[in-house]
């Protein structure tokens, strides 16, 4: 594809894809029973907490609608808000940088750190820097970045990948964490137990000297206020405050979609985010600062990296409302079983299945839009009302269209869809197909199919078919016989079965228990 | 085109279909629409496992001294602008203090900008008696005095009262993490102990 200057482009960044397809990666996750158990315990806990604190607010739906509208309004006038934000930050002594993609952002941050003469920086957990692979880029430049969020530290020490937006080490249990600390924390007490308090204490000790001596910090931001230039970081542990406050130089990397127009808008998001995210009325610490604060040298890097390409799609742009609360991950039956790594992107779960292919372009992430049962639990809990299921369907159509463009000859998928249409368009063929399915009701597994449908069929069971089709019952009960109902059955292609993939289990229904609040 | 121009151009190109900004309907509870119940504030602060103490306006100094004694704290950092008649009888370290001193003394006593009933949150804005942000971050112990008339009903009331250009720290209980099996553990990097003294008018 030819790209013209100034055209919204998808991101080439690799932390949004691994090359492995979701079904292949999910198999690894599904086989890891320890991880599945850890995830199930963790997501059940957080779902219940969230439901409780959301039910406390009788204006939740109004807040949710306002949150969605504020984000849409911001996106509709994004150029103005970006310019206002830049002007406000600059007026208060900060410096604004612009980065078209991850490489450019990494280069800017590297250059800013090198200018301070430092080779060690502390980092606050940030999805944006995770997305662009900042730590690796800094390491290549001889700069050591220490993650200070407990879960990120667990991931970094364990040489692991994050598997959840909010709790990147959610796939690890306390004993595994103790092992990681024992093996990789040079100053750790060898008698460390797996008591969470002790583990948190070990992290406190390990990081404290680094905080107190750090000269440069890199952070992300949850919100940027266009009218005032204010930045906002929402956190729990205090590592964020340490990084934002102590070092002389602060560099914040923020996606261009993080803006809200006015200070007042935060009254909505500071209610939506903590309750959706950790299931608390408020998270322990929220820091807000405007420009260079308390004598710091302050830089903010505004990042595109595929966001403008997402914005260019009228049916997909609402994904940019996302405030990264992770509520959709915690209710997702697919996420709970497959785990975050299966998505191959720093954005896992339902929103990752949408956002990752949007940011990279569907061609580079073709399996993710299919990593969902479309049960709708994610939409119900999303604090900014992103209709994830509808967007997944939209992206699936894009994947199919992209494939059609690539292959002149129809793919097996396209062929089977054509076959299905042929079967369903004739009453005779359709009746025959249904009857043969009901005869075959003992065989619950999908029959073998040629690739790529074989992998689809492998993970699916056919629903139980009734012993008799409705048409046959109608005739037996003395209804008017349909003229073509006695036609000889011909074996149908299983792909023409009108069966939806099996419905998600109980976890999905528990997710929407706060409906009607 | 430099990066700035190119990104702005890309954004404009992406919005070529000219989506209309939807109206933002604020029919949620707005600032000033609800009365304040300080007892609920006290309960919610305590829900985060902070310890809430209460006293009358004339008893603050006495009560602060007592709380510190119970915690066996004999030296505390007190920022500029902290009311002289509230200052306790223990040894006081005045500003300016270095990070090393803060780390050594490890206890701080401040006022605040406001409290939020609905969420049990206390907001500091580096105003008189609150010190720069680092002051309430490095010490392991924080005692904050909140006057009952500083408590507002909910988040919108707080946002309406606060000045975004000041450095703001919203505190809801002591430092905590849920990173290990999503179980809440108090005390990671910020103060592990938070005492709140709520003062009646
Ligand atoms: S899509 Fe919605 S629920 Fe999921 S992380 Fe984003 S804001 Fe939260």
Please name the defining characteristics of this protein.
heterodimer, A: 517 residues, alpha/beta, Rossmann fold, 23 helices, globular, B: 201 residues, four-stranded parallel beta sheet, four-stranded mixed beta sheet, 12 strands, binds iron/sulfur cluster
Can you tell me about this structure?
The complex is a heterodimer of chains A (517) and B (201). Chain A is α/β, with parallel strands linked by helices. Among the domains of chain A are: 37-189 and 198-309, Rossmann fold; 412-485, no CATH class. Chain A is built from 23 helices and ten strands. Chain A has helices at 22-31, 33-55, 60-76, 78-91, 102-116, 127-131, 134-140, 150-157, 174-184, 196-213, 239-245, 266-277, 307-311, 327-331, 333-338, 349-360, 377-381, 388-406, 412-424, 427-439, 453-458, 470-476, 506-511; strands at 95-99, 120-123, 144-147, 216-219, 223-225, 230-235, 249-255, 259-260, 285-290, 297-303. In chain A, strands 1-10-7-4-2-3 form a six-stranded parallel sheet, sandwiched between helices. A four-stranded mixed sheet of chain A has the order 8-5-6-9. In chain A, strand 5 and strand 6 (230-235) form a beta hairpin. The longest helix of chain A has 23 residues, at 33-55. Residues 439-446 and 482-517 of chain A have low confidence and may be disordered. Chain B has one domain (32-200): NagB/RpiA/CoA transferase-like (Rossmann fold). Chain B has helices spanning 3-14, 38-47, 60-70, 99-105, 155-161, and strands spanning 51-56, 75-78, 91-94, 107-110, 114-116, 121-124, 141-147, 151-152, 168-171, 176-177, 185-186, 193-200. In chain B, the strands form four sheets. Chain B has a four-stranded parallel sheet with strand order 1-12-7-4, with helices on both faces. In chain B, strands 8-5-6-9 form a four-stranded mixed sheet. A two-stranded parallel ribbon of chain B has the order 2-3. The longest helix of chain B is centred in the N-terminal third of the chain and has 12 residues, at 3-14. The chains are: A alpha/beta (517), B alpha/beta (201). At the A-B interface, helix 2, helix 3, helix 4, strand 1 and helix 8 of A face helix 1, helix 4, helix 5, strand 9 and strand 10 of B. The structure holds iron/sulfur cluster. The site of iron/sulfur cluster has 14 residues of chain A, from helix 14.
């Amino acid at each position: 594809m030819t790209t013209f200057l100034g055209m919204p482009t998808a991101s080439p960044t690799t932390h949004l894809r691994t090359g492995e397809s979701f079904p292949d990666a999910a198999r690894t996750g599904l086989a890891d029973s320890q991880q599945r158990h850890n995830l199930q315990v963790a997501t059940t806990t957080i779902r219940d907490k969230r439901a409780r604190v959301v039910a406390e607010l009788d204006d939740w739906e109004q807040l949710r609608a306002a949150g969605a509208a504020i984000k849409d309004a911001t996106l509709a006038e994004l150029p103005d808000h970006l310019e206002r934000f830049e002007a406000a930050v600059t007026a208060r002594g900060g410096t604004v940088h612009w980065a078209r993609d991850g490489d450019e952002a990494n280069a800017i941050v590297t250059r800013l750190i090198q200018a301070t003469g430092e080779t060690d920086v502390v980092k606050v957990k940030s999805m944006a820097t995770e997305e662009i692979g900042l730590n690796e880029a800094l390491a290549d430049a001889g700069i050591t970045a220490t993650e200070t969020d407990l879960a990120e530290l667990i991931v970094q020490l364990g040489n692991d990948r994050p598997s959840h937006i909010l709790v990147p080490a959610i796939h690890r249990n306390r004993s595994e964490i103790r092992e990681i600390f024992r093996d990789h924390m040079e100053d750790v007490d060898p008698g460390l137990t797996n008591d969470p308090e002790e583990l948190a204490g070990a992290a406190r000790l390990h990081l404290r000297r680094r905080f107190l001596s750090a000269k440069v910090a890199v952070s992300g931001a949850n919100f940027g206020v266009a009218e005032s230039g204010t930045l906002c970081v929402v956190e729990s542990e205090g590592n964020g405050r340490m990084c934002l406050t102590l070092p002389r130089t602060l560099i914040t990397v923020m996606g261009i979609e993080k803006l809200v127009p006015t200070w007042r808008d935060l009254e909505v998001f500071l209610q939506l985010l903590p309750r959706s995210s950790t299931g608390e009325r408020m998270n322990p610490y929220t820091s807000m600062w405007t420009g260079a604060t308390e004598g710091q040298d302050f830089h903010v890097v505004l990042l595109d990296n595929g966001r403008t390409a997402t914005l260019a799609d009228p049916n997909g742009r609402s994904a940019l409302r996302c405030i990264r609360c992770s509520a959709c991950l915690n209710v997702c039956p697919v996420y709970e079983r497959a785990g975050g790594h299966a998505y191959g992107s720093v954005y896992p779960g339902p929103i990752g299945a949408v956002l990752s292919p949007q940011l990279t372009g569907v061609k580079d992430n073709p399996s993710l839009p299919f990593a969902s049962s479309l049960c709708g639990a994610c939409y119900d809990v999303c604090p900014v009302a992103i209709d994830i299921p509808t967007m997944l369907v939209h992206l699936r159509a894009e994947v199919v269209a992209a494939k059609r463009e690539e292959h002149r000859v129809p793919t097996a998928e396209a062929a089977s869809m054509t076959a299905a249409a042929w079967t369903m368009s004739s009453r005779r063929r359709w009746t025959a197909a249904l009857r043969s399915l009901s005869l075959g009701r003992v065989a619950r597994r999908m029959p073998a199919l040629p690739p790529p449908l074989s992998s689809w069929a492998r993970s699916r069971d056919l629903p139980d078919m009734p012993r008799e089709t409705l048409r046959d019952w109608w005739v037996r009960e003395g209804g008017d016989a349909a003229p073509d109902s006695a036609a000889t059955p011909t074996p149908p292609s299983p792909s023409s079965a009108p069966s939806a993939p099996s419905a998600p289990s109980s976890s999905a229904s528990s997710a929407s228990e706060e409906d009607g609040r | 085109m430099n990066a700035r121009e190119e990104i702005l151009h890309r954004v404009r190109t992406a919005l070529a279909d000219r989506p209309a900004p939807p109206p933002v309907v604020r029919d949620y509870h707005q600032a000033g629409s609800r009365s304040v119940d300080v007892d609920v504030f006290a309960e919610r602060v305590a829900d985060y496992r902070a310890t809430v103490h209460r006293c009358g306006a004339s008893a603050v100094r006495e009560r602060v001294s007592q709380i510190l004694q119970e915690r066996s704290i004999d030296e505390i950092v007190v920022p500029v602008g902290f009311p002289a008649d509230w200052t306790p009888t223990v040894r006081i370290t005045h500003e300016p203090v270095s990070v090393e001193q803060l780390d050594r003394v490890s206890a701080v006593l401040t006022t605040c900008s406001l409290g939020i009933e609905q969420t049990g949150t206390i907001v500091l804005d580096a105003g008189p008696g609150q010190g720069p942000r680092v002051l309430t971050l490095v010490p392991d112990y924080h005692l904050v005095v909140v006057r009952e008339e500083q408590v507002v009903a909910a988040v919108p009331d707080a946002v309406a009262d606060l000045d975004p250009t000041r450095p703001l720290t919203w505190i809801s209980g002591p430092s905590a993490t849920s990173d290990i099996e999503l179980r809440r553990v108090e005390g990671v990097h910020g103060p592990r102990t938070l005492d709140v003294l709520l003062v009646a008018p």
